[in-house]
TrEMBL record:
This is D-alanyl-D-alanine carboxypeptidase. GO terms for biological process: cell wall organization; peptidoglycan biosynthetic process; proteolysis; regulation of cell shape. Keywords: Carboxypeptidase, Cell shape, Cell wall biogenesis/degradation, Hydrolase, Peptidoglycan synthesis, Protease, Signal. It comes from the Bacteria. Residues 358-442 form the SPOR domain. InterPro entries: Beta-lactam/transpept-like, Peptidase_S11, Peptidase_S11_N, SPOR-like_dom, SPOR-like_sf. It comes from Chelativorans petroleitrophicus. The active site is at 74 (acyl-ester intermediate), 77 (proton acceptor), 134. Residues 1-39 form the signal peptide. Substrate binds at residue 236.
């Protein structure tokens, strides 16, 4: 399209006087050469990957090496923020909850906020520091607060990635500093960008924050496209030497909405210029119709809009805060146990069940019940989570079907445990609270 304009303009110059013709010809062929050089530079860059997705329909408008493994760098913090928003949604955290910095967190290298060990900031300050300054020390402090340790939080991040359909992403830390095992793809980052917009509209405006003030210092946002390209409302930049310059951008204007990803830019300026070019070229091709690509339904009857590029049909939303009294049920896979459990639950009134993972969670899990219906299994998960919030704070509830003598049953399980020992230890603690369970590798 752009080259067609160049050619038309080049032909038009033949109607000009000779001097003007020469000047315009030189200018136009120079412009054509620049465009060709830009395209060749991106394709020749071994770190490059890019994708543009229509956020309303999930249609991929552009892709280049979109499924090639890449280092996310600070795009990692998008998932860190996803889990913060999830904790806010579930009631585990409030915006004023403290995030305390350990020596480990305080010692992270720049970019950092510089909070001393033993001191704390609020959750809202942590969010602002992550979306603007991309503070590594804050990311680690959040990981230790929500996960108990960096390693466990990284496991939570990876599990959440799987639930969102990010099958090519593995996290090993919360900040994105170099780790050879921390990999993703441009396509997965697009999935995450759209999930952030669609699952957390009440928090998404944080990504458009231009600056915030901490300890008397004004801290600006690293995203240079905010306020410079019409419709850009976030999301995140990233850089380490191994990755090059990365950027995930959300654009909503004129009834159209896209999420674009550029990875492996050679400089921040060239990355930003390429992103602006992608927006200009592909935003006009995005749908102006109603959102018609749904990934999940919330706890109410309203569907959660628009996800992209083949996200799972039942991708999980943030868990609702359990508020019901608890009775423990946990049995082996026996028909008698299933019948007893169903009878015990039959008199309960209606309530919003705990949303669970849409697919079984891999690794070590603990099972707390088997039931005749999925609704019963979800009720058990909610009650167990409410009875043992400390033990299961970082666990992922999910249900899993199996067949016995021609009958379908539903296992109620919690996943996300770091090891067999961690799962066994969790079971031991649950049994002290009169919750029977057993650990198994899924």
């Amino acid at each position: 399209m752009v080259m067609g304009v160049v050619v038309r303009r080049a032909l038009a110059v033949f109607t000009k006087p000779t001097g003007q013709l020469l000047q315009l010809a030189v200018a136009l062929f120079t412009a054509a050469a620049i465009l060709s050089a830009t395209a060749a530079s991106a394709s020749a860059n071994p770190k490059y990957a890019g994708i543009v997705v229509d956020a309303k329909t999930g249609k991929v408008l552009y892709e280049d090496h979109a499924d090639a493994p890449r280092y996310p760098a600070s795009l990692t913090k998008m998932m860190t923020l996803y889990l913060i928003f999830e904790a806010l949604e579930s009631g585990r955290l409030s915006k004023n909850s403290p995030i305390t910095f350990s020596r480990n967190a305080a010692a992270e290298p720049p970019t950092k906020l510089g909070v001393p060990a033993g001191k704390s900031i609020t959750v809202e300050q942590a969010i602002l520091a992550l979306v603007t300054k991309s503070a590594n020390d804050v990311a680690t402090a959040v990981a230790e607060t929500l996960g108990g340790s960096e390693a466990n939080f990284a496991r939570m991040m990876t599990n959440k990635a799987r639930q969102l359909g990010m099958t090519s992403t593995t996290f090993r830390n919360a900040h994105g500093l170099p780790n050879s095992e921390q990999k993703t793809t441009a396509r997965d980052m697009a999935r995450l960008g759209i999930a952030l917009r669609d699952h957390f509209p009440q928090y998404y405006d944080y990504f458009s924050t231009r600056s915030f003030t901490y300890a008397g210092r004004k801290i600006g946002n690293h995203n240079n496209l905010l306020g410079r390209v019409k419709g850009v409302d976030g999301i995140k930049t990233g850089y380490i030497r191994a990755s090059g310059f990365n950027l995930v951008t959300s654009v909503a204007t004129g009834g159209r909405s896209i999420v674009a990803v550029v990875m492996g830019g050679k400089t921040a300026r060239s990355r930003d210029a390429h992103m602006a070019e992608l927006i200009q070229r592909y935003l006009p091709k995005a749908s102006t119709g109603a959102d018609n690509y749904l990934i999940a339904k919330g706890p109410s009857t309203q569907p959660v809009r628009a996800a992209a590029i083949d996200l799972p049909a039942n991708a999980p939303l943030p868990p609702a805060r359990p508020e019901l009294p608890v009775t423990a049920y946990a049995q082996e896979d026996t028909v008698a146990a299933k019948v007893a459990l169903a009878e015990a639950l039959s008199g309960e009134g209606d309530y919003d069940p705990l949303p669970t993972a849409s697919t079984p969670v891999s690794g070590w899990v603990i099972q707390v019940a088997s039931t005749p219906t999925q609704q019963d299994a979800r009720r058990v998960l909610e009650r167990t989570a409410a009875q043992a919030p400390g033990i299961l704070a970082n666990a992922i509830p999910f249900t899993e079907t199996f067949e016995l003598k021609g009958q379908i049953y539903h296992r109620a399980r919690f996943g996300g445990f770091e090891s067999k020992t961690a799962a066994w230890d969790a079971c031991a603690l649950l049994k002290k609270q009169n919750v029977d369970c057993y650990a198994v590798q899924n």
